[in-house]
Amino acid sequence: MPKPFRFSAQVQQPMSGREWAELARKAEGLGYSALTMSDHFGDQLAPLAGMMAAAAATTTLRIGTLVFDNDYRHPLVLAKEAATIDLLSDGRLELGLGAGWMISDYEAAGMPYDAASVRIDRFEEGIAVIKGLMADGPFSFAGTHYTISEHEGTPKPAQRPHPPIIIGGGGRRVLGIAGREADIVSINANLKDGRGGPETAPNLAPAVTTQKVQWARDGAGDRWDEIELHVLVGFCVFTDDPMSMAGAMAPAFGITPEGALHVPVGLIGTVDSMVEELQWRRETWGISYITVEGPWEEFAPVVSRLAGT
C-alpha cells in the first residue's frame, strides 16, 4: 500500500527573525508538512536555532534536518538538543542524521576528514547513542568512538521512543544502515568524493536509483513496509518544453532525455506533468516524501494536488 504524499520546503538562508517566522507560516499555510534545513558551515542559518524558531511561529508544521553531520556534535549533546526541540515543539521534530560528507566544511573547521569507512563507523555508533539516550532508563555504551556510562538522557522527547529518524545516502553501506535504523530513508547521490560536483550526475540515473532502493530494502528486512521513502529535489523548473531541458541534461547523466525526466533529484515540466511524474516515482520506487529546495512557493500547486493522497 503506497504511503500518502507529503512535502517539505528546504530553506535556510539568513534572514531576520520576523522574516523567518513569516516564511514558516507561509509554508504551513501552503500545505507543506515540514520545513527542513541542512547542516553546513556556509551562508545559512544554524539548524537547531532555525528549527526552533520555525516551530515557535507555527502550530502544525514539522521541522527537520537534512541532515545533522554526526562529526559536528557529540551524539550525547545532539540527543539532548533534539529531545529538547521535540519537547518544546510538541512532538514535531524529524531528526535527520548523517555520517558527514562535505570536505569543505571539515577544511574550514580544521577538522580531520577521516576515511568514509571511519566516518560511517562513528555514525553507526552515534545512532545507537542517540536512540539509547532517548529511551527510558540509564544508558551505557562502549564503542570504538563513543563511551557512555549509565547516563539518563533528559529531557525525553515528546515522540516516543524517539522522533522519526531520517537517514539518507547513496552508497550500499549507508543505505543498508538507513533501512535498518531509520523511519525515513532518503535516496541521495553517492557523495563519496566529498564535493558533490557534476561527476555525481551518473549516480542519479533512474536505474541506479532502483538499485539504491533495493539496498535500503535489503537492510530493512521485515520492517520495509513501515519505512517512508524520501528524496530532496534540488532542481525544479517549470516549463512547457521539458524535453528541451531534459535533452541538454541527459549527456551528464549518461541517459536518454526521457530518462533524464525521471532523475529523482529533479523535476521539469508543468504542474500537471510534475504531478504525473511524482505519482510514477511513487509507483516505481515508493518515494512519497518530497523535499523541494528552490521554488517551493511556485511548487505549491503540486503540493495542493498531491499532499495526503
Summarize the structure in words.
With 309 residues, the chain is an alpha/beta fold. It has 11 helices and 13 strands. The protein has helices at 17-29, 47-56, 75-88, 103-109, 116-134, 172-181, 206-220, 242-253, 257-260, 271-285, 300-306, and strands at residues 6-10, 34-37, 62-65, 68-69, 93-98, 139-142, 147-151, 165-169, 184-187, 228-233, 235-238, 266-269, 287-293. The protein has an 8-stranded parallel barrel, surrounded by 7 helices. Helix 2 links the parallel strand 2 and strand 3 (62-65). Helix 1 crosses helix 2, helix 2 (47-56) runs parallel beside helix 3 and helix 10 (271-285) crosses helix 11 (300-306).
Question: pLDDT below 50 for ≥5 consecutive residues: which ranges?
Answer: none
Helix/strand order, N-terminal first? EHEHEEHEHHEEEHEHEEHHEHEH
**How much helix, percentage-wise, in residues?**
40-55%
SS-based class: alpha/beta
Number of helices: 11
Backbone CA Rg: 19 Å
Indicate the overall shape: globular
Strand runs, count: 13
Largest sheet data:
8 strands, parallel, barrel
